[in-house]
Amino acid sequence: MNFLSKSILTTGGHIVAAALTMLAGILFARTLGPAGMGQYSLILSTVTMAAGVIGLGLGSANVFFLNSRNTPIKDIVSNAIKTTMVLGLVLAGGLTWAFMEYKDYFGRLPPVIAVAVAFGGAAYMARFILGPILVAQLMARRMVVVNLIRPLVLLLAGGLFAVIGLLNPHNTLLVLVAALVGTLCLVVHYHWQHIDLRKRFNWGLFRELGSYALKLSAASTMFALTREVSVLLLRGMRSEDFEAVGFYTRAVSICLLASIVPHAIAPWLYAKWAGTPLDQRNRQVEMAARVNVTYTLLAAAGLLLLGRPLIRLLYGAEFLPAYSALVLLAPAISLMTLFVVCQQLLASDGRAAAAAYVLTGTVIIMIAVTYLAVPGMGIQGAALGVLTGNAFAALAGMGVCWKLYRLNPLNCLFMRRQDIRYVRKALIRKT
Q1: What is the residue-wise DSSP string for 198-235?
Q2: Dist. CA 18–CA 264, nearest whole Å
Q3: Angstrom distance (rounded) from CA 402 to CA 350
Q4: How far apart are CA 179 and CA 248, in angstroms?
């Protein structure tokens, strides 16, 4: 199976996974209502961000060392398993403390639920340290299966709880934990032949990985913040209830559908570009940017036109206030998509720090605009923060890539006839 065919396969898997996730979100939203969905989404955002911070960028560092340094996979996997055990305990302990200490912010959770969610967060982090190793090996089919486990568990287990009348915010969190743990178990199963716990921990490899991972960690942490900081700030500034978070996250969920394809392909681009000559890589980068930007612009236009009926159809009329955020979030999709291509190029060339600097500026802008706009604009203010931050990320990312690689920004905007012909031929090419 050639590279583009694998990208198409994994993109199809992501589309199916996103569709299942959307169905689970519809089930949860219609059962829990805006407030219950808001609490669930807030805790999920917190777990996602915390996992990104504690994970230290080790997943992407593993890809770099496997493909660029030719480090034996057994050394990578065995070290990663032991590392995740320690980091997982740190993350679980920190999340448990936060949930129990800040009850006014997260809502009151029974101790058993708080602990379960905390360890679910540890499983989520471990999956994103070990999962990219499959990407490094270009194991498309296995990655598709891994990506499908979580939404399948969410939908099936959530549906069961709904049928028997027990789908409340606390049980929804338990369903989430089951999905996160189940995904990690599958990833470990795929790596089983490479795991040797009797093998002495390779401190030299850990130091080398850690050195590069710290640069990647800054980028991955900042990227996680760009996706979650608006939710966290919105809850803090609209603390009277969870409804604002519920409306805003449904708008985000719909907009994420438009970015499925670019985000599905991005890890494969990173794995491929890590060993590609500069001139060939630049042509691939420009084409990837053109295809992604054109696709997301068309998707965003569709969301603007059909946003209200789509929200009503998916979540019900009580979620229609989400449209006010959707009109600003939809145009932001293409901007972040353009930056994601730049980020993958920088990471594949060992320049993760440059992406981290851009994302740091992005987060600062998002926080400032959100803080100023939310009191007067509500969820629209949070969306405005995302739009402004994404615009900065796209412009700065392209500026850095032009300076470092002489990448032409004008060649990265709209699809050309040769792009269409290339994709069409790849779709019908025998693998």
Answers
A1: TSPP-HHHHHHHHHHHHHHHHHHHHHHHHHHHHHHHHH
A2: 10
A3: 16
A4: 24
Question: Structure pTM?
Answer: 0.77
Which amino acid type is present at position 42? L
Structure tokens at 116: 């379960």
Instruction: Report the candidate in 298, 287, 283 with the shortest Cα–Cα distance to residue 265.
Output: 287
DSSP characters for 111-168?
Answer: HHHHHHHHHHHHHHHHHHHHHHHHHHTT-HHHHHHHHHHHHHHHHHHHHHHHHTT---
The encoded tokens of residue 430 equal: 């025998």
pLDDT tens-digit profile of 120-160?
A: 999 999 988 887 777 666 666 777 888 899 999 999 999 99
pLDDT tens by residue, 311-367: 999 999 999 999 999 999 998 988 888 888 888 788 777 677 788 889 889 999 999
Tens digit of pLDDT for each residue in 23-67? Answer: 999 999 999 999 999 999 999 999 988 888 887 777 767 776 776
Q: Report yes or no: 57 and 127 within 8 Å, Cβ to Cβ.
A: no
Structure tokens at 46: 């917190």
Q: How far is it, in rounded angstroms, from Cα 371 to Cα 373?
A: 6
| Helix orientation angle between 203-237 and 352-377, rounded to the nearest 10 degrees | 10
26-32-33 Cα angle (round to 5) = 85
* CA triple 417-419-425, angle to 5 deg: 105
